[in-house]
Amino acid sequence: MKSNNKIAGVGLLTAIAASLCCITPVIALVAGTSGMASTFSWMEPARPYLIGFTILTLGFAWYQKLKPKKEVNCNCDTDEKKSFMQSKLFLVIITVFTAVMLTFPYYSHVFYDNEVSGTSISAEHAQKYEFTIDGMTCESCEEHVIREILQLEGIGTVNVSYNKGNAVVEFDKNKTNEDEITKAINATGYTVTNTKNL
User: Fold this and answer.
1) pLDDT score of 61
2) Has this prediction a pTM greater than 0.70?
């Protein structure tokens, strides 16, 4: 049964690894260390494989736990009590926690305050730029970039998309500029690869 615990532990670790790219921006926001937000973004391409491995590992652990026991005819005493780590309850807890980790990218936005917004900008001072950003992998990444940009003075609207890999920012050209916005984005750990005036 100890090997079953190891299998469940491996499943849990791969689930955490599969979600590190999305958990890290939330941790960075809470810790106030914005530069670490993209630390595990390099793992995003491996996420489907880690999820598959996690499911297979936990499936095997459950198979081991639920398969019928072979009856052995002996007169030995088999009433020894199993530890909590060898119980079905422990495997249920590991499975639930793993599911929470694997689905984290789909609910990570709840950790961000949706009350952030920019200031209003007069049309004569307004300028709009598109920033191509490398390294964003989920909604947590988007939120982190938005919050960093909104710390600058003179920011109007900010639309960030990890799917498109960009941010479209409207700002007051008398209060900030595209270089300052680029620095703010790069401070999150993601990288601006191109800017375009719209």
Assistant:
1) 83
2) no
